[in-house]
Amino acid sequence: MQHTLEIKDLYASVETKEGRKQILKGVNLTVHSGETHAIMGPNGSGKSTLAYTLAGHPKYEVDSGQALLDGVDILQQTPDERAKEGLFLAMQYPVEVPGVSMTNFLRTAKTEIDGKAPSVRTWTKDLNEAMKRLRMDPKFAMRSVNEGFSGGEKKRAEVLQLELLKPKFAILDETDSGLDVDALRIVSEGVNRAKENTDLGILMVTHYTRILKYIKPDIVHVFADGHFVKTGGPELADELEENGYDEYLPEGSTESALA
Amino acid sequence: MAEQEQNTMQNVQSQTQPTNTEIKVPQADPHDPYAFPAAMPSSADREPRSFEVDAFPKPTRKQEDWRYTPIDRICEFFDVFEPSGKISVDITDTDGNPVDTSHVEVSQVDMGEKPSGTVLMPNDRVSAVEWVSGKTATVVRLHGENEKPVVVHVHGGGMDLDSFHLVIQADDRAHGDIIVEHDGTARIAEGVEIVTGVDSHISTTFVQEWDKGSKHVGNHRIRVGAGATLRHSVVTLGGDVVRIRMDQDFGGAQGDLNMLGIYFADPGEHIEHRTMVVHNYPECKSRVVYKGALSGKGAHSTWVGNALIEPTAPGTDSYELNRNLVLTPGAIADSEPNLEIENGNIIGAGHASSVGRFDDEELFYLESRGISETEARKLVVQGFFAELVEEIGVPAIAQHLMNVIDRRLARGENVAMQAVLEEK
User: Fold this and answer.
1) Residues 6+ away with beta carbon under 8 Å from A150
2) Closest partner residue to A109 among B370, B382, B383, by Cβ?
3) Nearest chain A Cα distance for residue B229, angstroms
């Protein structure tokens, strides 16, 4: 089935020490099932804010605009309702939840998303196989959510959830950061598998072109100063690789100076 | 958890108590400087220990030991009373069957008849009142290898004042687990004496699941044998006022004490735990970990963890920790660790204490996976306690405790639901 995520003229702000600051300034984007969009841009351009605003993080406040998932404005929903609607956010820094085992967490999430508990037999099999494909040690399932996981293990655990929860759209926020080449390949394979199996639509937020060698984008966008400034095919990524983001930065500043 | 934490190693409490007796400062032996005993009088010396009620003044909030306690709500326990005898006590295994008499002996003795009154002495007025008011003591003695936990089920018989005195004795090299469960409605003064033999491995778990309005003042007096391991757990999940004070020392070297506490305070409830760990022999180890959750206006918890390391206890390894999770606004958690270290030759004496709220990032992470806010909060609270329960290391008891906690969380849900229904 074909699904659509349509972001319309989205403005959002965050409360800072210096007062309220608008980060997203008129975001427009349409993603269909099976499409992979790379969202690239300089540091501080608001890429992650877009990801978290769509997922419903309480820190970000929507000023105006819509995000329609098959016509339903998810911005009016709580984070768990958005997840049930079919949205998934793979976080750059997955949060540790002490004392809550991965198995208990995954089963609870699966039950909530599907609206019914998974059958014991197929669930255990699915979980074990998914972990095996991501080269995850089975004992991870017994550990607390993300607790004591290395950076690479956390990213694998995010992709594990992506594969098990089977969302319609996934936002991958800097999923490539902190991964060595082997881990990057394993994680990318997982994302590609999810796309193949469920016709997932992907919004891949990234600063570097490295991950694009493994997860091929159909469309590449440049995000700067809170909105999309350029859209093109995969060749746009090569161009960014070559020239950097300088031309998208405010007059007189460079990427390194902003970082 | 979003929390402020302080970790201090060897935070030596200053001693300013004036004393009339002249202190003779001993000469240090340069070959064994750590043998130098503390020149200051220890706080243990100035705290009265007595079976006489009048040895203790009536509690007021000006006294250090009572400063957090709502005195007026438990003043009925300040004078000797005639126990109603309405509390019922059953002793079985975990399946409700009679205990294995080849390893467990259960008997009744008159108060004061051995082994009652043999482990330390009452240390405050309410524990002396319990001692004087009570008529008999129940004795549970363990020997050999006990496979199944022994359950002492204390069921309240209403609001008439009653008392209960329990002595738990473990022979040398005994292995076993005892669970003491309290439920129903009661106003109870309870005394518990625990003495464990050489190289024994014992766990004692005290669960308070009192009905609303119940009051419980308790005093545990504990002696851990040489080379013995004792896991002492306290789980307090309900009661108008529950105040349990635990005094402990070691009966020989290389004892290992693990004290673990879980509590849950609802609106208007006062839940207080005071632990006093005394290191009086060499190379003993103690861990005190208490965790509590509080919800609603007037929910009040108090944890005071005292640790005293005496000059006779080189090689001591001690640590105490208290964490509080405030679930909804309006609750008060008092948390006070006190360390008194009179011996420089120790492995460690640390403490940590915190009061925190739900971490928004944890909740958001769970919610972004489709888990509702209510369910996410429940998972976080379960996790908060599960970390601790796992450390018990006795599967039957860990499971039992998680069941008790789940029951408590389910009750919270019902209460919340009830409130919603009543509003409509």
Assistant:
1) none
2) B370
3) 25
Is the minimum CB–CB distance between B402 and chain A shorter than 8 Å? no
Q: Per-residue pLDDT tens for B257-314?
A: 999 999 999 999 999 999 999 999 999 999 999 999 998 889 999 999 999 999 999 9
A14 — contact with chain B (CB < 8 Å)?
no
**Model confidence pLDDT, tens digit, residues B169-222:** 999 999 999 999 999 999 999 999 999 999 999 999 999 999 999 999 999 999
For B164, the 3-state DSSP assignment is: strand
CATH homologous superfamily for A4-258?
P-loop containing nucleotide triphosphate hydrolases (3.40.50.300)
Q: Does A15 touch chain B (CB under 8 A)?
A: no
CA dihedral of residues B145, B258, B327, A49 (deg, nearest 10): -110
CA distance B219 to chain A (A): 31
Q: What pLDDT is stored for residue A8 in this prediction?
A: 97
How many alpha carbons lie under 13 Å from residue A67 in its C-beta half-sphere? 24
Answer yes or no: do B367 and A113 touch at CB < 8 A.
no
Q: Which of residues 96-155 of A touch B (CB under 8 A)?
A: 96-100, 104-105, 108-109, 112-113, 144-145
DSSP string, B231-288: EEEEEEEE-SEEEEEEEEEESSTT-EEEEEEEEEE-TT-EEEEEEEEEE-STT-EEEE
Q: What interface predicted TM-score (ipTM) does this complex get?
A: 0.95
Residue B371 to residue A80, Cβ atoms within 8 A: yes
- Smallest CA–CA distance, residue B363 to chain A, in Å, is 9
By CB neighbour count within 10 A (0-12 exposed, 13-18 middle, 19+ buried), where does A205 fall? buried
